[in-house]
Amino acid sequence: MQIAVIGSGYVGLVAAACFAELGHTVVCVDNDLEKIAALNAGQSLIHEDYLQELLQRHRGASLRFSASLTDAVAESLVIVIAGRHPGHGQRTRR
Length: 94
Prior knowledge:
A 4-stranded parallel beta sheet has the order 3-2-1-4. It has helices at residues 10-21, 33-40, 51-58, 69-74; strands at residues 2-6, 25-29, 63-66, 78-81. The protein starts with a strand and ends in a 13-residue tail after the last strand. The model has no long low-confidence stretch (mean pLDDT 91). Strand 1 (2-6), helix 1 and strand 2 form a beta-alpha-beta unit. The chain is an alpha/beta fold. It has 4 helices and 4 strands.
C-alpha cells in the first residue's frame, strides 16, 4: 500500500520507517528542505532505537523523502499526519 506520512519529526519519521518495514511503500513529506536533504543523504536527525537500521534498509527502495505534499497525497492511498500540534513544547498541568 502507498502511504504518505506528513511530517518527519519523531513521530512521522519513526512511523514512516515502521510502515516501510511492514512492506508498504512510503513517502515522508516535510516542508523543511534541509531536513529532507539530510534524510535523502542518509542522515538521521533524531535518535530512536533501531531507526538508523530501518532507514538504511528502506531508504531509496520502499521509503523516500520529499517536500512535495501535492505529489505525495496524489499518489497515496493512506495519508498520515504527524505534524506539530498547537501546544507543542508547552507543559500541560493535570
